[in-house]
Amino acid sequence: VQLQASGGGLVQAGGSLSLSCAASRRTGSNNGMGWFRQAPGKEREFVAGISWTGGSTYYSDSVKGRFTISRDNAKNTVYLQMNSLKTEDTAVYYCAVALSSMPPVVASGYRCWGQGTLVTVSS
C-alpha cells in the first residue's frame, strides 16, 4: 500500500487547512489510521488517530478541539481538518496505517507511512 498525503501549504495563524491521505488500495480489513507530524529538530509526534470504523478518534492534547480526523473507507482516504492553526503547528505531516484496528500514539505501531506534506503557519 502506498499513501499519498496532500493539502499542506502556507497559512496565517488562526487559519485552516485540510489534509488528505489517499491509499493506493484498501489498507486492510481492520486497520486504524493516524496522522503524525515532525517539526525541524524535533521527534515525530502523534497528532490524531481514527479507528477502522471511524467510530473512535484520538487527539494529542496540543490539537484537541482544533483538529478533526475522519476517514472514508470507500475512497481509501483519511482526512485531517485543521482549524485555528498556530505557529507551533508548523511541521511535516505524515499519515500512516496502524497495525491494529485502534490507532496507537507511538510511531512503532504503524506501517506504510506516506511521504509527508508540509504545513507552515506564519504569525
Distance between the termini: 37 Å
User: Helix and strand string, N-terminal first?
Assistant: EEEEEEEEEEE
Structural class: mainly beta
Low-confidence stretches: none
What is the number of beta strands? 11
Shape: globular
The biggest beta sheet, please? Answer: 7 strands, mixed
Gyration radius, rounded: 13 Å
Question: What does this protein structure show overall?
Answer:
The protein is an all-beta fold and 123 residues long. The protein has strands at residues 3-6, 9-12, 17-23, 33-38, 45-50, 57-59, 67-72, 77-82, 91-98, 110-111, 117-122. The strands form 2 sheets. Strands 2, 4, 5, 6, 9, 10 and 11 form a 7-stranded mixed beta sheet that branches. Strand 5 and strand 6 form a beta hairpin. The model has no long low-confidence stretch (mean pLDDT 94).
Summed up, what is this model?
Strands 2, 4, 5, 6, 9, 10 and 11 form a seven-stranded mixed beta sheet that branches.
List the helices and strands and how they pair.
Layout: E1 3-6, E2 9-12, E3 17-23, E4 33-38, E5 45-50, E6 57-59, E7 67-72, E8 77-82, E9 91-98, E10 110-111, E11 117-122
Characteristic terms for this protein:
123 residues, mainly beta, seven-stranded mixed beta sheet, 11 strands, 0% helix
